[in-house]
Amino acid sequence: MSTHHERLVALRDELYSIQLDGFIVPLTDEHMSEYVGDYAQRLGWLTGFGGSAGTAVVLADKAAIFTDGRYTLQVREQVSADDWDYVAVPAESVTDWLADHVRPGARIGYDPWLHTRSSVEQLREVLADRDATLVAADRNPIDAIWTDRPAPSHARIVVHPDTQAGASSAEKRAIIADWLGDKRADAVVLTALDSIAWTLNVRGADVDHTPVALAYAVVSADGTTDLFVAPEKVDDAVHQHLGNAVRLHDRAAFPAHLQSLADKRVAIDPERAVTAVADAVEAGGGKVVWLRDPAVLAKAIKNQAEIAGHRAASARDGAALTRFLRWAEIECPRGGQTELSAAAKLLAFRQETGLLLDSSFDTISATGAHGASPHYRVTEESNAPIELGQLFLVDSGGQYADGTTDVTRVIPIGRPTDEMRDRFTRVLQGHIAIATAVFPDGTSGAQIDGFARRPLWEAGLDFGHGTGHGIGSYLAVHEGPQRIAAPNYPGGASLEPLRAGMMLSNEPGYYKAGEYGIRIENLLLVEPRTIPGGDPERAMLGFETLTFAPIERDLIDSALLTTGEQAWLNGYHARVLEVIGPQLDEDERRWLAAKCAPIA
């Protein structure tokens, strides 16, 4: 099956053989991960889609792929319209589409290890209304036809030092034990890979760009933990680190262990655990208590060691990016450079730090029209030359033992148009509005998202993604529960209150289909703020900018900036020069000084 059309035909044949009339294919794994290992890339294998979020539904006579606004262009480039209908979410959901297309009496299959309980209930309700049935598949039918499917990673687990974690695993498990006592629960099942890594102070290499290991954990009310992981992944150093309070089991023993929790009150996260986990607990006579994974909020609020580590990682990473920006400004206008060659050069600059462990995601190296796809991923097939007259957007990050980075910059190749400068400046104004925001403790990201959009709205413009996401500490580049987004953008609004110690990205953008894309991204730390003359009883918060790299002055129309915006930009660039300058050679420092000169 060398073509995606042949794979679709084979899937339909397999569905017929197991008496299913359709099947739902989400892009996730059994941990509800955003980024998944090669073994779990079922959606990409079936359709050719290379994005990080999407779902497909295959019926006997029709198939559809569901993506949000970040992938509107990409899905059309990668997935054949001859076989697939393109459906935009959230305007139309999977359940909406099924309600319109499923036939009475149909049996629609799903993999219970790839769906949450709530999504299963919604699907079952919609199908029942159409006199159709939702059926849990004993085995994922894609796995039956994917004959060369990669095996899960066998990479070893490594210890994440307490000095970098800022707290020991025993301390973290004690906090979870106290939480279980407060919730009158006997145990909590941790299925999110980053939660397990954070709780046990371990890291792995089982998912590209995310340092996690494929595992499950069950933390009991006394703080002891059962860890389910392939035995070959654990060496003596990890055994010693985990200690006697962490009992090791083969990962394959996890479902049986869940069924052994009879008469126990077991906490399970409704958003992060698949329905198969709850099904197994209930099948064994346990009581499921639907509660958010207790590691989620604790992990999001960084301690002083994690904050210090991120500052060091950001300074190091910013110097590498700055060196790349100088290289790109010199080399790209000469011709001969492509999206792939530029991405490789940026990676080389980061590797020269001697401390890079991985990139934090596939670099978005996008020139011209490719920049208009916010999550564009360059391949050998899509690789485009970087040419005069284009904007070149690069969104990238590094994984270092002391921090995870994520930063976006745009540079003009040659002279930018007046329109490009106008749009870039409006994006910059929105970026500054977030960076300088001051707000009461308890404010959510949804409440400040509009700050980033107002300069664009005033020109009748907008961008189709959230403004900011949380970020891990040598963990996932996208981390919840906090984010900055409105309800009608991918992922929906975050009503999670912003708390001191949280880190988020600040990345407004603008995208002109077929021509160019603009995004300016720095990372921020939420911190307490004192407002002179303010109510002393009202706690206030603001942001510290953590990312340092020059913002392209040739794309800025200074006439659009207010005095306050100019002051922020000049102050930011002075700090860039202070932090990054000492890490550069003489020629690089001279170039950076010019880029960071005050804008009048």
Automatic annotation (TrEMBL):
Domain Peptidase M24 C-terminal: 540-599
Domain Creatinase N-terminal stretches: 7-137
A Pfam family reported for this protein in Swiss-Prot or TrEMBL: Creatinase_N
Boundaries of every Peptidase M24 domain copy: 310-527
Gene Ontology CC: one annotated term: cytoplasm
E.C. designation(s): 3.4.11.9
Keyword Metal-binding: yes
GO molecular function annotation: metal ion binding; metalloaminopeptidase activity
Keywords: Aminopeptidase, Hydrolase, Metal-binding, Protease
PANTHER family: XAA-PRO AMINOPEPTIDASE 1
Similarity section: Belongs to the peptidase M24B family.
Protein name: Xaa-Pro aminopeptidase
